[in-house]
Write a structure and sequence with these properties.
Layout (H helix, E strand, L loop, with lengths): L1 E7 L5 H7 L7 E8 L3 E2 L2 E10 L1 H19 L3 E7 L1 E4 L3 E9 L2 H18 L2 E7 L4 E4 L5 E4 L2
Helix pairs in contact: 2-3
Length: about 150
Amino acid sequence: MTIRTAIVRRPLDIAALMAELHDSANGATLAFLGHVRDVNDGRAVTGIEYTAYGEMAERELASIASDAATATGVTDVIIEHRLGVLALGEASIAIVTAHAHRDAAYAASRFVIEEVKKRLPVWKREHYADGSREWVNAHGVATREPA
């Protein structure tokens, strides 16, 4: 059984995370990466800055992983969320789940990303091509800042 979570300030290494869950009992290992994309709501994005209250975010991320294991029966879950300024294409979140069967691994991964969007106290500030920036919450509500 491996349940591990981390809030990090370094690039995410999906190969290392998958290797961490390598076990001959697992018939499925599933990796999900969330990346910074170049357009959001029709606006050109040049990057995103993620920030959080670290201790609270760490506790909530661990709670999400534990809840995923309870809800799906998957006992191998790793979640890492990155903080700092990320460029286009960089990964902001990595979720790796493993189980004897693929359905459970998929269910756990989906559970994690949906709960992260609802519960994790990590905030993002999108940087736009026009020089403006906005804090955007998980529900798409933005607060505009001057350029």
